[in-house]
Write a structure and sequence with these properties.
Blueprint: H1 2-15, H2 20-42, E1 55-56, E2 60-61, H3 76-79, H4 90-104, H5 114-135, H6 137-147, H7 161-176, H8 180-206, H9 210-239
Antiparallel strand pairs: 1-2
Helix pairs in contact: 1-2, 4-5, 5-6, 6-9, 7-9, 8-9
């Protein structure tokens, strides 16, 4: 790594004697070379060919093509080729997810080494987990908090009394419902509120309002609990 840094410094001194346009071009070429060299040097060696090279799709050795051991610490956004932010395109997320699953599908490794067969199953499981996390607004929000080193509050301190009272009343409405139509109407209200909160989360993350994010996520948990209660009541009415 020291040789890369020293070389980078040398290039800066040399380009000082070039014309501005040529200086810019030469500097950018060297910068890209230095970044490439650093990324290769800092990556783990392939278990098969022992070379340190960039990984295709963060999983496959670009030299020998062998599937690498699962990286349980990989950022889910990086894995699914998205920038690390709350806003994302759900259709593209599903597309990227399916493409990755096609690459690591166990059927493609049935005749490979036992290590690659194990890696295939491990990557498939991790990709599923990453997709489910990013596909759901509340899970995606909590994951982003974790990446920031933040945790969800363990009590109701992030909520105001008015919201808690409204949730108690909503629970009573679910308990008192005697027909499916009433429950469907209640569920439609919850779905709309969850969609609005997802939009609110997008703005809060963009503004780096962590406390606002935490409060909104807790509110979403309450609404999801009510939605689960609605589903249970619907099943109860169907069974009666």
């Amino acid at each position: 790594m020291r040789c890369v840094i020293n070389g980078f410094k040398t290039a800066v001194r040399v380009t000082n004697y070039l014309s501005p346009a040529r200086n810019s071009i030469q500097f950018e070429r060297f910068r890209l070379h230095a970044v490439r060299q650093f990324s290769v040097e800092s990556s783990p060696a392939c278990w098969n060919c022992q070379k340190k090279s960039n990984l295709r799709q963060n999983m496959i050795c670009s030299d020998c093509g062998h599937l690498q051991d699962v990286d349980a610490e990989i950022n889910y956004f990086d894995l699914l080729s998205f920038p690390t932010k709350f806003s994302l395109e759900s259709q593209k997320l599903t597309k990227n997810f399916r493409q990755l699953q096609t690459i690591v599908h166990p059927d493609k490794f049935s005749n490979k080494t036992s290590r690659e067969q194990t890696n295939s199953a491990d990557w498939s499981s991790l990709i599923n987990k990453a997709y489910k996390t990013l596909a759901t607004p509340i899970e995606r929000g909590q994951y982003l908090l974790q990446l920031e080193g933040e945790q969800m509050p363990q009590d109701n301190s992030a909520l105001n009394k008015e919201f808690l009272m409204a949730m108690m009343e909503r629970n009573e409405e679910v308990e008192d419902a005697v027909d499916s139509q009433t429950l469907e109407d209640l569920n439609a209200q919850v779905v709309k509120e969850l969609e609005d909160m997802a939009q609110k989360l997008n703005s809060l993350f963009a503004a780096k309002d962590i406390q606002g994010v935490k409060g909104t996520l807790v509110e979403m948990k309450y609404l999801l609990s009510i939605q689960n209660g609605i589903k249970q009541k619907q099943q109860s009415l169907l069974g009666s």
